[in-house]
Hints:
heterotrimer, A: alpha/beta, Aspartate Aminotransferase, domain 2, seven-stranded mixed β-sheet, C: alpha/beta, Rossmann fold, five-stranded parallel β-sheet, five-stranded mixed β-sheet, 16 strands, 33% helix, globular
Amino acid sequence: MGIVKIKKDFHEARWCEPIIYEMSTPGQRGILVPMPDDEIKAAAGDVLAAIPAKLRRKELNLPEMDQKHVLQHYVRLSQETLGANLTNDISEGTCTMKYNPRVNEDLAAHPNFAELHPCQDEDTVQGILEIYYKFEQIIKQISGMDRVTFQPGGGNHAVYTAASIVRAYWESKGELGKRDEVITTIFSHPCDAATPATAGFKVITLYPDKDGFPDIEALKAAVSERTAAIFMTNPEDIGLYNPRVDEFVKIVHSVGGLCFYDQANANAFLGVARAIEAGFDMCHFNVHKTFGTPHGSSGPANGAFCCKEEFAKFLPVPTVGFDGKKYYLDYDHPASFGKVRDFYGTAGVVLRAYAWTMNLGADGLRECADISVINNNYFEKKLLEIPGLSECYAGNGHRRQEQVRYSWEKLKEDTGVGTVEVCNRVVDYGIPHYWFSHHPWEVPEPMTLEPCESYSKDDLDEYAEVLRTVSKEAYENPEIVMTAPHKASAHKRNDDAALDDPAKWATTWKAYVRKHRK
Amino acid sequence: MSKPVYPYIPNSVPEEKAKLLKEIGINSVEDIFKEIPDHLRFKGKMNIPEPFLSEYELRRHVEGLLAKNKSCKDYINFLGAGTWQHYVPSVVDEIISRDEFLTAYVVGDAQGDHGKWQALFESASMIGEMVGMEAVNKPTYDWANAIAIACRMAARMTGRREILVAGTISPSRLSVVKNYCKPEIKIELVKYDSETGLLDLNDLKARISPNTAAVYFENPSYLGFIETQGEAIAKIAHDNGTEVIVGVDPSSLGVLAAPADYGADFAVGDYQPLGLHMQWGGGLAGFVCTRDDKRYVAEYPGLLYGITTSVQEGEYCFGEVFFERTSYASREKGKDFIGTTTALWGIGAGVYMALMGPQGFRELGEGIMQRVQYAQGLLSNIKGVKVPVIKSPCFKEFVVNFDGTGKTVSEINKGLLEHKIFGGKDISQEFPEYGNSALYCITEVHTKEDIKKLALALEQVIKGL
Amino acid sequence: MKKKLGLIVNPVAGMGGRVGLKGSDGEEIQKRARELGAHPESPRRAMDALERLATIKDDIEIITYPDEMGEKEARECGFEPVVIGSVEPGKTSAKDTIKAAREMAEQKVDLILFAGGDGTARNLYDALGDNGVPVIGIPAGVKIHSAVYATNSRNAGEVALMYLQEKIKKVQDSEVMDIDEDAFREGRVTAKLYGYLKVPHEERLVQHLKSGRTEGEVAALNSIADDITESMEDDVLYIIGPGTTTRAVMEKLGLKNTLLGVDVVLNKQLVASDVIESQLLDLIKGKKAKIVVTIIGGQGYIFGRGNQQLSPKVLRAIGKQNITVITPQNKLSAIGNNPLLIDTGDYEANSMLSGYYKVVTGYQRTVMRKAE
């Protein structure tokens, strides 16, 4: 092992790019449009005259630029972005930032996928249907569930799908008004509370016991004939596997409630533990996390929602079926609640995820699980040696699985430098802004890190060394941390209040010009 | 065979793994997984096909599956109905496939991910100009979800619980909206004139009530025609304290007025026509735009990227606008949720808008309308084919009726496949009042020869040749 | 213009604690404490807090009282304070604290940083009332039930720093509580809610986009009030406990509210204001009644602190199943993993009331919390 090198001389690109509207030169063109043939023009006549005068466009204020400068502008903006494929992105705990293989991008760009229209005859899309179907079989193996839909556009959307299914289920039993409560836990993902609330349920949140596990006694006190379902994450975001998860399920089932397993944090359990053994009725996966597809700066993502056969009739339509010869779109879900998205979901994510999985196979998936927990435990050990840093529920005798929620509480007490400032400072070493925790901050000054299987030992060591360096700076020269970042593409905002002031805020350039440039 | 070293898993090298285990002070990974009680462990082996370990074999395998598809490059495509085939400039593909944008995380801070925030802010600025509005959210899942978000915002703003929707709305989008608005908000369809497709203003007046939060209509509509009564609809709505939501295909906005100009309070729609590949429907990305008024901005469930300045003189910086949007916590039975959506498509659409500029959109719109006019002329000459069915000006889609051919749309489309043509979408189930009809879509990708080929093929299919 | 910071150190705060006296109020106690070898805690803690302000030394003006009441500590930390008033060193008392706070308010200070305990907080409340001068307490006293204190001295300095730098802009009404010290030393606790002072409210409102935003304090209270008022049943008496959270419920109903006392509502109309135990017992006789209370003070008490009107007798008559606890999420986060506390002074009543509550934190949102 060599000396751990951190990027002391890192500097992110800083192009000081104007806003694209400031680069406009009247008359310039970025691309020409194919014009209709003269014969068409002649036959069509003045088509615009058919539009009532008031409905005709008079002016359109878009930038006018030549092609080179559009390209240049956006390439520069891209360079001012810390994508996971080019950084040590252990930063995003709960989000499993994996390497996103380039070959899958090639496959997704293939015209036989990219140029498919969703309403094409089934005979002409047998390939993509087969991919959907086969990936469903894989997800069934991973979860133990009977049916899957890939229609949701992301993890939260899949959890919302679960909430819609719970609603449809109780509606079908004529008990929707009575079953109006959904239980969740404080360290579950916020969507486990937010999406049932969107679907109209009251939400009851359980707090952890002294060891950090959801309080089972609180669950016993919470369940009743009003319980529609429980929505829970396991391991929760603090990285502890709840060993009594099946008891939670039994308690909820005992009052007739349904059980949904949020498996956004599933990476460490591929081939290790499944929703079915714990007794759940439904679960979901964030396809763009666990199955190696890119986050795309916030999507396109995909959520795989899985359920037991009993609930298949409520699924959004269509799913994909196979009759032994042909793959087809299956609309046979007689009690379907409808749709959560137009067409069949973000097919490109499903395609990439299928390719990713087929590159690894069952052994490879299991290797992901193994390495991700080994990485995490090694990383945890390194990090806990850093002054000012601790982990929540330290010393409870339980090993963390794929991630850990740390706390900079001591550092803040000792130096005034808290997690927000540390986070701003790591960017100066080329590390992306890390994930704190969901609100509310039950763990003070939180930092949640997830070193999944994509990271090498050097990555883990580098990341730890960056945090150690920042901690040292906080004790010796806190000002440099408090005023960070210094080497990012932009500096700190100077007037956060402007973003909250209707007279000053601007979500578009037009609003900005109107409010600030008179 | 010994266990492979996986190219995506650096620590799958046995020596590296052993080093880590030693440092942790354990013998095997089972010392970590022992936290999972035995009865919760999965004991078997997942029944997943043998992997293609080399990239070459993997590519062969997946390309082999894709080879079973016929794409709109192989066939001439006349399908629209929610996903549309437009030309995708190379610059767009280049930008959205850059690893920096492609693999960036959902959030990221405004400094380290400055470029991403700026790109999304610029997309918002440009789509805002297209629809005539100054407040724009981060892209959502798709047009359908954008409508639903706008409906819920309007319901919160007004405290009312009913939405009136033009009966010509896309049925698929309607299905999403209905589910999203449950349980509190009721969706009611407003009648339309089947001759013109236009909204029945009398029915609107009859249905609108003090409980109507919003009126929603599409322009151009799902069935392709241009709703020319925007102003009148908005007046009826506004007189009743009702919000106006207009759904719009942005590729029309070089020739059609901005929705705000005829009274829209909300404009929603899809970025997909703006330089995003169809991807079997996976190219969708919704936008929601409103007036830049605290009343509206307070109700956005999603993110709003705002521009501001930094401590460095002359430098722009970004952040979330109205971070503590207080009003939406209250009363609302179901608070909306947010999450990972479709930011990359938003960036791509921004690149497209910047490339096209005002002149590009004008030429695009006019050229499409000319082709449509031309195509309608050719098709109307075919025996048994009735077009136009809806007698209002249309943009890029139009209904074609085949009642006079003695054949169903499905039969005709099967026949067209033989000619390597994807015929229009069968709407005979969705809109039975138009009989045996299909929704055809024509864009700038269609040449004179393509359209002639369609006419010829249709003639042959109908004749049973 | 330089920001003005008032600084008050109660030089004897905390003396009683180390020598087993339950408080340091009153000359006699202080004398005894000194005899027992006690040293004041507050000077050192005040200095810990002041050190946090070193970075803005030149941008603020410290206004303080002479000698041991702040001047000494300020100078030792390298400040040049403006000293007002006069004291008799070694013999300062509550009166001096009150005088100091009043004079600082007259000088229009932006914030008062003070070191002391519940007695000191009460003195500040006596001096300032509802006049709006924000304060932040450095916990140095034996008794800290009031919610006007930071979690430790450094954090008090940190909050002061951030408020003076305008990084914190919000203030929150926070409870001033104190117990009858004579009774306390005899082992009886009768904490009283004296009033509310404005305290800079530090919530680490980070731009935290993935999970959505937290709602602000006002929205949270509004949302809780919506939940409670919408679920109110006809012909049931609602006994509304003291506090700012319960005040939001009364405001939602458009009813006059007793911030420090208990009000009774029937069919959304006020039937009695600021009632005492005996009135309550009369009112609920033979009627269905429910209680709505919130957490009082920084430690998580729901009964026995500041709402003694809700006596064991009253609570027994109404029953645990008819008690609703309401609180914004941030107050729950502040007590961490600790249970809600009940101390009615009656063991049997305490055990009857203990167990899980569905605590209302927003519209149709509850959390399960244990009380004991």
